[in-house]
Amino acid sequence: MPKIVRIMKRLEDGLPLVAPKSDALGVRHNVDIDIDSQKNALCNDKGMSVSPSWKDISPRRVPKRLGGQGPNSTFVFVFGSGPFQPKVIANGLELLPNSSTHGVIRPTETVPLTQYEDALAATRPDWRIDET
After folding, report:
1. Element (H, E) at 118
2. Residues 61, 72: contact at Cβ < 8 Å?
3. In whole angstroms, what is the distance from residue 72 CA to residue 57 CA?
4. In this structure, are residues 10 and 71 in contact, taking their beta carbons and an 8 Å threshold?
5. Residue 111 CB burial class (10 angstroms; 0-12, 13-18, ≥19)
6. Which of 125, 126, 70, 80 is nearest to 103 (CA)?
7. Over the stretch 31-62, which tens digit does the pLDDT of each residue have?
8. Which residues of 30-65 are buried (b: 16+ CB within 10 A; e: fewer)?
9. How much is the pTM?
10. Rounded CA gap, 70 and 61, in Å?
């Protein structure tokens, strides 16, 4: 499983917030993911942004406690531990790197938006905070 990193808000249970926001486990509609007229999430080069390391993320998003400019209400969450390369990471989801420092988690095929969002939410227990 590739190691992927995303900076997100944390809920009381220590796991990431699930929401269609840039600081949550989710995607902004027709911003992060393309949606067709039937409300399907398209399988193209868009999806939930991730990186191989928090040090590859813009300082504007990195929490101040880690030397960035972002809010301390967000945390560095990590999923997986392997090389940052194309791979199916969960049922219906795959990592598509678009550079050595950035990639997206996209649907493996065009599916209803709710199915894609549910697949992202189903990974919630597998994310852990790691700010090392």
Report:
1. helix 113-122
2. no
3. 15
4. no
5. middle
6. 80
7. 999 999 999 999 999 999 999 999 999 999 99
8. eebbbbeeeebbbbeebbbbbbbebeebeeebbbee
9. 0.96
10. 4
Task: Kindly give the parts of the chain with pLDDT less than 70.
Answer: none
Task: Report the amino acid identity of residue 67.
Answer: G
With CA atoms as reference, report the closest residue to 52 among 87, 75, 14, 80.
80
Cα gap 67→51, rounded to integer Å:
18
3-state secondary structure of 56: helix
**Residue 40 is encoded by which pair of tokens?**
């399907």
Q: Are strands 74-79 and 4-9 parallel, antiparallel or unpaired?
A: antiparallel
Token pair, residue 14, equals 């220590």
Q: Give the sheet arrangement for strand 103-107, strand by strand.
A: 48-50, 103-107, 93-97, 87-90
